[in-house]
Amino acid sequence: MSFTSSFCNPPAGKEKKKSRGEAKTPSPFDINNYRLLKKLGEGTFGKVMLASYVTKNQLVAIKIMSKDGEQDDFKYTRREASVLQLAWRCPFLCKAMATFQTQSLIVLVMEYMSGGTLQDLLNTRGRLNRDQLL
């Protein structure tokens, strides 16, 4: 899997043709097309920011990771992107919207889901029973 631009690609043959005068839609694969609002969290591999995708005014979570890390960090990031791509249709998981890279960063753009993480829920409520999971 390449980090240049994954996800959000239209199916082959389904690309919308633009007329000459029509404005080009900003790419979801360009960090400059997101307005960073606040830091949601930070972990071993990078930080997660709440952002707004400028064309749709849609809230997204952006995981930003430096390329300066260890080779194992990069492998973990590639694995995470692969899992997100495989889980695209699962209704219980956060959706990945785009992955791309800059000279120094790897960026995963994901659906924003308010309310914290599963780990936050487990820390506050403890073990969840079957009814809570369904």
UniProtKB/TrEMBL annotation:
ATP binds at K63. It holds the Pfam family Pkinase. Residues 1-29 are annotated as: Disordered. Gene3D superfamilies: Phosphorylase Kinase, domain 1. InterPro entries: Kinase-like_dom_sf, Prot_kinase_dom, Protein_kinase_ATP_BS. Residues 34-134 form the Protein kinase domain. One of its GO terms (molecular function) is protein serine/threonine kinase activity. The keyword Transmembrane helix does not apply. The keyword Cytoplasm does not apply. Keywords: ATP-binding, Kinase, Nucleotide-binding, Serine/threonine-protein kinase, Transferase. PANTHER family: RIBOSOMAL PROTEIN S6 KINASE. This is Protein kinase C-like 1. It comes from Xenopus tropicalis. The gene is LOC116410549.
